[in-house]
Write a sequence for this structure.
């Protein structure tokens, strides 16, 4: 039979890519983990911010409901409480156990009891006892403090009136006056929070390609299929490129999903309520996703270049787990050293993406250069990683170790 | 046709091949005999251009694998000592992958997969994923991959290991058919019975050198020993090699 050479329809790197990608998609367990990891973070972020918003918008004074036993003994105090927006529910004389039940069922924030001798003591200018029952295990602490403040103000008022009646200035009672100034705004606090949170949205770039990068290099060596593959009529760079693109694609999907999900959540949340805003438009976000593509490809390339030197899946995993956190270090360093955003930051992969998104989120006007630098810095690094991996695969030492 | 002349290969201080010369002709099955560690794997890797020789020349249909490995590999079916299957791919997908790497596609490819599967009697495992395959099933899949692109040259490293009687017969028929088609087959093996039944030519290498080349009958005549196995031991120079 005559041997015929058919023309190559599919580039070989594409053949390798399709096979590796299909294999990765069939690895249900690691795929499930990736999905979880990718969507869990934005969801968590949304949940935490939502809680903050809820807390910030909770009506503070409204609805302080307090039960009072013996309300008719201190009508002025009751009027003051009402004036301070505390709803007073008079109660008939109640036992300690019943008060306990009332508080445990959260029917009331606190129970105030004026003992029978209150009127007598008050008239005789003896300290008149007022009992305040509350449950410190419940989350009504702030409202209980409000009530105590009202009581203290009431007490100080009466003391002042009594001193005045004796010809003493009430000012004697207040040798100092404390005035508090809080310059921290909600907006500033939340902006710091959101800035540090955004950095993690790029973590899937490192995470999602891991399994495929390891499986298609160290895993292939472990299963002893690498030599077979290398004996096929394909250049080392074609094999590496296919494996690299398969791993990189998973990362690209991961980062894009994480960013899009976070964007959707942040747009949907009423961030204005906590003095923040999400000024990133969908176009901005699409651009950020686009310039983050090389970041994913760089992570995949680097992991392949490292994992291919390991003899087994396990060895590669432990090698890579050491460097997994490295890309996050510049981001942490910059925020810890409180460095001002500078152009060089756009030259460091990962840090550049984080900085870019943070600056956009701050509402800064970003020129084209940061986008270009972010894209190019990772793209160049990815190229170097892949070139190194291809060179390594061709080397005789590698062939012998396979 | 595969022509090897005075090929040497050294790894550091270890001389893997110290001078190997032979010619494997088209339409013949050439056995590569040698004790473990004789340099067979290194020789096969040199032939497909995975390693570069230090000295000598190799020509596969006139092409030097060190100069143009891609062209050489396109025309070689290489069955290594490892099968290299992928657990998450079915046999058909596995074969399609390697077929596409050889530039095959579409109907031609799937027809050829069916043909090879039929030839090796492995239709029952064609659509199954290779996880849990037996040794025999694995080597069949690997053998199918080796034959898929109709290579002119076959380099087979112990192709019959782990095969049952029926499969061994199927393999022999396949090899005989390839010989009839004019393929050049080099088969490393330790089974003397296979050599005397199937092979037209025998190359004996020991300690990195070609010790002898000739038909099984010629080797027996040369050593003056009737039994091929004894002749082999005598050529290698020690019976330790077979035990190693």
């Amino acid at each position: 039979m005559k041997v015929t050479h058919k023309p190559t329809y599919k580039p070989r790197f594409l053949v390798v890519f399709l096979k590796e990608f299909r294999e990765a998609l069939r690895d249900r367990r690691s795929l499930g983990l990736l999905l979880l990891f990718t969507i869990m973070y934005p969801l968590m972020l949304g949940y935490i911010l939502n809680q903050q918003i809820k807390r910030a918008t909770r009506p503070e004074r409204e609805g302080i409901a307090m039960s009072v036993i013996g309300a008719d003994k201190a009508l002025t105090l009751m009027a003051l409480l009402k004036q301070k927006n505390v709803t007073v529910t008079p109660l008939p004389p109640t036992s300690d156990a019943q008060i306990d039940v009332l508080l445990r069922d959260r029917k009331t924030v606190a129970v105030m009891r004026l003992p029978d001798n209150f009127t007598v003591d008050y008239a005789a200018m003896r300290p008149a006892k007022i009992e305040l029952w509350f449950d410190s295990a419940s989350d009504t602490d702030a409202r209980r403090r409000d009530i105590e403040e009202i009581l203290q103000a009431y007490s100080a008022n009466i003391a002042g009136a009594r001193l005045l009646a004796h010809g003493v200035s009430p000012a004697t009672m207040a040798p100092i006056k404390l005035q508090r100034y809080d310059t921290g705004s909600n907006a500033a606090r939340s902006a710091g929070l959101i800035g540090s949170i955004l950095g993690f949205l790029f973590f899937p770039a490192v995470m999602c390609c891991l399994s495929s990068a390891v499986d298609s290099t160290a895993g292939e060596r472990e299963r002893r299929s690498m030599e077979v593959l290398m004996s096929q009529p394909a250049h080392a760079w074609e094999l590496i490129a296919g494996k690299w693109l398969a791993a990189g694609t998973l990362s690209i999907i991961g980062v894009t999903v994480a960013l899009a999900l976070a964007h959707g959540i942040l747009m949907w949340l009423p961030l204005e309520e906590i003095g923040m805003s999400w000024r990133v438009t969908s176009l901005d976000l699409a651009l950020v996703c686009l310039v983050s593509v090389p970041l994913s490809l760089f992570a995949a390339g680097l992991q392949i270049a490292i994992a291919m030197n390991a003899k087994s899946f396990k060895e590669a995993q432990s090698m890579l787990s050491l460097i997994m956190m490295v890309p996050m270090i510049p981001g942490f360093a910059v925020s810890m050293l409180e460095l001002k955003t500078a152009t060089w930051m756009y030259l460091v992969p990962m840090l550049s993406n984080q900085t870019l998104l943070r600056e956009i989120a701050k509402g800064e006007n970003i020129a084209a250069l940061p986008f270009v630098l972010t894209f190019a810095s990772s793209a160049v690094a990815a190229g170097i990683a892949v070139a190194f991996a291809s060179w390594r695969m061709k080397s005789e030492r590698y062939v012998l170790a396979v | 046709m595969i022509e090897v002349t005075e090929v040497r290969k050294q790894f550091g201080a270890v001389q893997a091949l110290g001078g190997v010369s032979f010619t494997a002709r088209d339409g013949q099955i050439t056995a590569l005999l040698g004790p473990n560690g004789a340099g067979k794997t290194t020789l096969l890797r040199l032939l497909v251009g995975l390693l570069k020789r230090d000295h000598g020349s190799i020509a596969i249909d006139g092409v030097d694998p060190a100069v143009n490995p891609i062209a050489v590999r396109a025309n070689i079916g290489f069955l290594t000592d490892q099968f290299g299957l992928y657990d998450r791919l079915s046999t058909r997908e596995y074969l399609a992958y390697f077929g596409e790497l050889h530039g095959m596609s579409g109907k031609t490819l799937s027809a050829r997969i069916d043909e090879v599967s039929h030839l090796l009697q492995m239709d029952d495992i064609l659509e199954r994923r290779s996880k849990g395959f037996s040794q025999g099933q694995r080597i069949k899949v690997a053998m199918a991959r080796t034959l898929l692109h109709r290579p002119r040259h076959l380099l087979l490293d112990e192709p019959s290991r782990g095969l049952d009687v029926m499969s061994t017969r199927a393999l022999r028929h396949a090899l005989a058919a390839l010989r009839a088609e004019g393929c050049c087959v080099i088969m490393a093996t330790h089974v003397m019975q296979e050599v005397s039944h199937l092979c037209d030519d025998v190359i004996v290498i020991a300690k990195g050198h070609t010790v002898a080349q000739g038909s099984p009958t010629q080797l027996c005549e040369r050593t003056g020993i009737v039994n091929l196995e004894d002749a082999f031991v005598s050529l290698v120079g020690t019976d330790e090699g077979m035990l190693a």
User: Anything to note?
Assistant: Residues 2-75+151-243 of chain B form a domain with the Rossmann fold fold (CATH 3.40.50.300).
